[in-house]
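Field reference: sequence -> structure
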Amino acid sequence: MTTLARSLRVLSLTALAVSLSACISLFPKSEPSQLYRFDGATPAEAGSSPAPTAQFGVVRGAGSFVQSAAGDRMLTVNGDQVAYIAESRWVSPASTLFNEAMTRA
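Structure field:
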């Protein structure tokens, strides 16, 4: 290999390395979404034994979540305005969490 070819090879590898290092800034630098549980229990509370409570039953009538509220995005209502909360999600779709909470109740 000649000196010129070797120099071009080193120069092209250096240019490639520099251009790839610039790609790191192209990736999103947003914070990960905050995940929320539907039942409100924290992991520390989940391991402790619950206090004795009165027994009661829950009857769920026929119904379903509207499509905008059934997913894992957190929906908020303020007066007549409805919006999703940025960077926050349920750990599972809200309809699934609700059904599981009803089963536990």
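Note: The beta strands are 34-36, 73-78, 81-90.
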